[in-house]
Amino acid sequence: MSEPSEPDYALADPRDLLVGYLDYYRDVVLRKLDGLSEEELRTSRLPSGWTPLQLLKHLTHVERRWLVWGFLAEELADPWADDGPDGQWRVGPEESVHDLLAAFRAQVARSREIVAGAALSDLSALGGRFPADVDAQPSMGWILFHVLQEYARHAGHLDVARELADGATGE
Prior knowledge:
The structure is a single chain. By secondary structure, this protein is mainly alpha-helical. It has one domain: Four Helix Bundle (Hemerythrin (Met), subunit A) (Up-down Bundle), CATH 1.20.120.450. It is built from 5 helices and no strands. It is globular and about 45 Å long. The N and C termini lie close together (11 Å).
């Protein structure tokens, strides 16, 4: 897998920066998973107990919750599907690495379509994550920034997990 690269230094457009950095961190997450054995992908090396596959599934659901359920207000049967009753991310033994990666890539593609059809100033629809009785609706720009910070934080977590697994460091 090739090294992910940050957006160009001269880039100044806020939309291009948000989208570019979001794609950059999506690539970082995939690169951190690349090369780990199935056992390592399903093993936690951290006191919190999450595994690299659980983190991947969590990020898939983060995109669903914020862009599909949140921005579009589409109903989701189980928006918190990756969270167990104890708040722990879940990946069942029947869920394959291939299927989880495919679900992530499909959700990223859907998210890109949603973002492409909206301006940063567009407000989320009401009725999904944000019921009609809320005081404020987040803008697409706010949602993208929130999702970006989720990725940046979790890429750092995954960086530590990967270093503990096999010593690999860097992007």
